[in-house]
Amino acid sequence: MATAIHNFQFVVRLSMSNGIRRICRRAYSTRKLTNAEVRRKRVELFDAEKQRQLALVTRVEKIEVRHKGVPEECTLIMNKDLSTPFNCAMHIHELLMNRSALALVNGEPWDMHRPLERDCELRFLHFQDEDSRVLNNAFWRTCAFILGHVLETAFKDEYYVELCSFPPPNVSSGSFVYDAALNIGDWQLSQTELNCLSRIGYRLSYADLKIQRLEVPVSVADQMFADNRFKQEQVSAIAAKSKSGATVTLYRAGDHVDLSSGPMIGSTAQIGRYSVCAVHDIESPTFGKLQRVQGLALPTQLTMHSWTYDTILRPRAAKLNTGPLPEMRKTQTPKELPAP
Amino acid sequence: MLKFPHRMRPRKIQIAVGAGQEGRIKRLRQIVTGLVRYERVEPTYAQADEARQYAERLLYLAIKNGDKHKETMEMADYWLLEKDLVHKLFKVLVPRYKNYTTCFTDLHKLAVEYPGSGLPRAVLELRGNPWPPIVPRQRDTRYLLSNILLAGARKDYHISKQKAWEQQQQQQQETSSATLKSSSSSSSVDSGIAEIDREVRQEEGSPVDEAAPSSKSSSSGPQSVADR
């Protein structure tokens, strides 16, 4: 019976022209959305927008980048709007390339894969710096962003997970958070299932995905997040708050694209341990019932005994995080979106 | 006066066979002189430990009395074998240590040399000297991500402890007041379970006995499992 159906589909697919097939797929997607489809669409839009922006740089101009710090202070001549701090690190030392998670450009936090715009002074940050609070926040934000990836990829197609937002990073609260509508009904995730989620995040450190930043116009962002009722509402509010008034900052790791004001760390290889600790039900004043998913992570560069991690930090991360609830304010940016 | 922990009794100092008390004092003067000259000396631990007190005392008096004070000048003349150092004491070291609230010297233990005399060695130095530091600067690890997490956990733990303690105090107060009340009516009720017993009595309307709480817990057992 099953083979018969398969054969039938095969025949139908063969007989359909390309256009009809696309229409069919679209009709299907409006009937029942899946995360995989939505993600594919977002990545395609992201790529197209990136290509468009790259095409705008028609003439390669040179800028002077003065590097401060170990192993040596030097001046590099780099390409304007093309070269990133990561490229600078490649020129200087392999150690800088691997361990640097964030750059300071004229004292301002700057993503490792964000092109430099003018002559500047450059410093690299890593997790064992004396005062790594800026980087810690960036790491925590990245982990929440990755949690979004985990939630969107973990469940079967029949569960359509809608991500909402994550509160500003607060490391001392003990856990990072992603608020989302998981749409899984009464299903309470067991410890084993949480471990499975953790493993998805943990595996990303082997994938070594670089985390890219892109500023896109509102129209593109609207198109990208049209399938997510929460993000859809947030896009315009975020754009209103942005410098130019009509752009939104996006981040991408692998095939995951999300809204965030950044900054974030350079690569998923810098995330060492990663655990999804708990899922709590919350009630947002504007978005209704949501789930607050909490996790805990450590950078690859920092080591910790498993006893400390499993007995002290993980149970603490499983307690409900009292960070601000997702909320939309009228004529203002939503509170939940992380400030830079 | 001396701003560091010190021992008031003399140490066992081996200088040479038959050197005697004079030899001992001579060695201490040599060390104090060397300290003022070079600002860092490396005698044995016992010698350094004892000479330190005299050096500190000399500096203290120099700061306190200045170079117009006769006794202090005599003291400097006695401890500093090389007389050009008297000028250094008053012109260089006194201005340096005038505002110090701590002691003026540092004493560090060194590893025992082998093969060698076998005596424990030490470094005695004046603070604020121009040499590279002996103890490397400790890195501040407060803001490492792992340490921030652990500090947060520690804080939570102390808060929970405090809360538990407060609750316990409150309960004790309540139970003591309850026993005071109940002791006037019936003396058989145990103070520890007075609260529970009273609730049970209200719900079931039966006199207090041993079986009542246990039967209640067994009846509520399956229900609680079902809730989970």
From TrEMBL, chain A:
Example GO molecular function: nucleotide binding
Species source reads Plakobranchus ocellatus
Q: Which residues form the TGS domain?
A: 83-124
Q: Name one GO biological process term.
A: threonyl-tRNA aminoacylation
Q: By its UniProt entry, which Gene3D superfamilies does this protein fall under?
A: 3.10.20.30, Threonyl-trna Synthetase, Chain A, domain 2
The superkingdom of the source organism is Eukaryota
Q: Which Pfam families match?
A: TGS (PF02824)
The protein depicted here goes by the name: 39S ribosomal protein l39, mitochondrial-like
Q: Please give the InterPro entries that the UniProt record associates with this protein.
A: Beta-grasp_dom_sf, TGS, TGS-like, Thr/Ala-tRNA-synth_IIc_edit
A single GO cellular-component term on record: ribosome
Q: Specify whether Protein biosynthesis is a keyword of the entry.
A: yes
SUPFAM superfamilies with a match to the protein in the record: TGS-like, ThrRS/AlaRS common domain
Give the record's keywords alphabetically.
Protein biosynthesis, Ribonucleoprotein, Ribosomal protein
| Region Disordered, residue ranges | 320-340
Q: What is the lineage of its organism?
A: Eukaryota, Metazoa, Spiralia, Lophotrochozoa, Mollusca
TrEMBL record, chain B:
Q: Which organism is it from?
A: Plakobranchus ocellatus
Q: Which InterPro entries match?
A: Ribosomal_bL17, Ribosomal_bL17_sf
Annotated Gene Ontology cellular component terms: mitochondrial large ribosomal subunit
Work out whether the entry's keyword set contains Ribonucleoprotein: yes
Basic and acidic residues: compositionally biased ranges: 195-204
Among SUPFAM superfamilies, the record links this protein to: Prokaryotic ribosomal protein L17
So which domain of life are we looking at?
Eukaryota
Q: Where is the composition biased (Low complexity)?
A: 167-191
User: Positions of the region Disordered?
Assistant: 161-228
GO BP annotations, alphabetical order: translation
- Keywords attached to this entry: Ribonucleoprotein, Ribosomal protein
Which family does the UniProt entry place this protein in? Belongs to the bacterial ribosomal protein bL17 family.
For this UniProt entry, the molecular function terms from Gene Ontology, in alphabetical order, are: structural constituent of ribosome
Protein name per the record: Large ribosomal subunit protein bL17m
